[in-house]
Amino acid sequence: MEKNLPIFSSYTFDDKLLDEVFDKNKNVKEIYQTLFDIYNKHSISDFEALNEYAKTSFFNQGITFQVYGNNETKEKIFPFDLFPRIIDKKEWDHIESGVLQRSKALNLFLRDLYHDQNIIKDGIIPKELIESSENYLKQMKGFDPPGGVYNHISGTDLIKHSDGKYYVLEDNIRTPSGVSYVICNRTALKRALFGVFDKYKIHTVTDYSQNLLEIMETVKPNGVDKPTCVVLTPGIFNSAYYEHSYLAKGMGVELVEGRDLFVKNSFVYMKTINGPKKVDVIYKRIDDAFIDPETFNPESVLGVPGLFSAYKEGNVCLVNAPGTGVADDKAIYAYMPKIIKYYLDEKPILNNVHTYHCSIPEDLKYVLKNIPKLVVKPVDEAGGYGISIGSKLSKKEIEEVKETIRKSPRKYIAQPIMSLSVHSTYIEDKKSFEPRHVDLRTFTLLGKDKNYVLKSGLTRVALKKGNLIVNSSQGGGSKDTWVLKN
Amino acid sequence: MLARVANNLFWMGRYIERSEHVARYLCVNYFSSLDAPNELSQSRQFVLKSMLFMVGDPHNDESDLKESDVLFNIGLNADKPYSIINCVKLARENANSARDLISTELYEAINKFYHYVLNYSADFFVAKGLYEFTTHVMEFTAVLKAKITSTLLYDDAYSIIRLGISMDRATQVIRIINSKYNDIQLIEAKKEKSTLPSSSLEWCTLLRCIESYDMMKRYDKDAPKSINTLDFLILNPKCPKSVINSLAKIVDHIQVLSNDRKPAKDSTIFLVNKIYNDYKYKYIEEIEIDFKIFIEKILTDLVTISKKMEKEFFYI
């Protein structure tokens, strides 16, 4: 390939897919025209150099994650694509109001599940669905978390379908990750191609940490004037450690590990060089099962003995509340439109993908008959693990999937294969731009009488051609996401 | 500040400082030996043994050392705890654990340093890269110390890092003095049997290993010899790398961590002041009487301070 050709010279088009940058006639969409003109001035070799520069910038900043092999641990950067995604104001307003609506409904749903369970009594949600959920924590029953908030931080995964509409794929309300990449992607793009920022008026992403701290301060325990907030991490070997340290630094709070904390007389303290200091609000980045060996997994060395008792005494606030996992179970996802209607008396703003629940006999029958047309997902896995895309399976694999579902139908849901939109993405091996599937994770914060949605998101991109799974653990990368001011 | 993180910062400082001293020792010794005036100090085996002695892995038998093995082990063998690469890895690992407390600028500089060392070709290093690599290591550590001074808040975290740097500087300077003193003893022993030139060159090398040769020349016009060199490097408060200067810095920074106006007898600050004052009023002639014992004593004192700090501040 000629190295001095413009970078878009070998772009390919697929009529069946929604391309966010080009229209059906292969013309650049208006919103991207200025950006496209700037990028297309670069020759392939110019762009290669810029791409390398951006990669080095990530390495030097230490924005990496660990990949564990048999003999050695490798440090890798989360692949970053230099061509940003643009979302216009109207489209964003729709997304923002939709994700906020879902977060509020999920919070009310969680409160109800851990109190009177009216939604079950009224026949909206089957009792078995909750009782059979491994993420329903009976220890949370009857407990009111400080400020009445359960899902302080929600990550909502959306896709843009070929019909041009946004659909929610998942609600993540346990410990949604990725927000640090939103901010670092912006920094990396500014460093590499600062000139492009003059041409568009876009919202900043740097106010996230400050808003997170303010949200955490709204849910301080009773009687505390100025709360001491901390971020609780499993430690430097956790794949998201960079994000934990980034958020702690951004908020100016301590990044603690379980071994730095102890509980005395039902209060939580951290060990400082000047002696114990009381902790009031903990943003925990440790799974519920590991936060307190006295109440949950007794083998946990990551947690703090007695932490849950201190929480139940109201002496410390945990963000997000333990037990939120029951509501981001993919089996619950199918009921989201009803949940929104039940608690808010509103129509859902964002679309849900039709979901077949394998524990319902009719749905199971349909799923077993139509695997090639469906995506089968385990209800409680994250990171894209355990997902089977029917159209990509061999006959033998289809039979294996069927057998797995038959063995434990409660554990699986199925959805029609959605056509994720594609976005122009630089492919290193090919040294050119090609269309690749993308999704979008938004970040919503809920506090006591305060909420906030980050005006951007993590656009994840599946770097392998035709791949629909965008998770970083499955070879995905990400893009800077611009939300336009007007 | 968290006790665990304080420990991380302390060791980050120590490993940054250590990598610099090991790199300089390799570089200065190797290159000054190339045109050394006597056969022994020109001998490659003699130089390699001296390097191993300094890093704490002495070669005590008569077998020949392989130059490329020694250079690799001290420079880039991650399995050797004393290697430069290991110091840099540990400095960065400790920085990682305290990443939220240090500035982005400092972290990026550490990270760049780490990637430079990690990606340096071992084959090139042992064949041609000794000067380039060790010089870059020294430059990187200078940048890091500038970032520490110019981008951090002058608070507990800063003092802890400075404590780490000063503790390791005192330790490494003593180790280097001990190592070169040992070399000089060997040369002197040979000299009795032959007509070797004076060991003055080795005292010059010692000063260069501690980056103090030029300033020593300004301070004292006499040729470097035992008494004036040791006095300058150990007891002279005007020499920036002197042991007494490092102890004075330890006193200053430990003060920041202590709120007590009248420290308890079992506190670190009490111990540090006691040790500092002991050395402050020593004179070189009394040290020279039995230099080996002095070296052992000062190394033990530094370890005692470190252990006391760990117990009082780091909860170890």
TrEMBL record, chain A:
Organism of derivation: Maribacter vaceletii
Circularly permuted ATP-grasp type domain segment(s): 84-462
SUPFAM superfamilies for the chain: Glutathione synthetase ATP-binding domain-like
InterPro entries assigned to the protein according to its UniProt record, in alphabetical order: ATP-dep_Glu-Cys_Ligase-2 (IPR051680), CP_ATPgrasp_2 (IPR025841), UCP005522 (IPR016450)
The protein's name: Putative circularly permuted ATP-grasp superfamily protein
Transmembrane segments: none
From TrEMBL, chain B:
Transmembrane segments: none
One of the Pfam families matching this protein, by short name: Alpha-E
InterPro entries: ATP-dep_Glu-Cys_Ligase-2, DUF403
Superkingdom per UniProt: Bacteria
Residue intervals of the DUF403 domain: 1-314
Protein name: Putative alpha-E superfamily protein
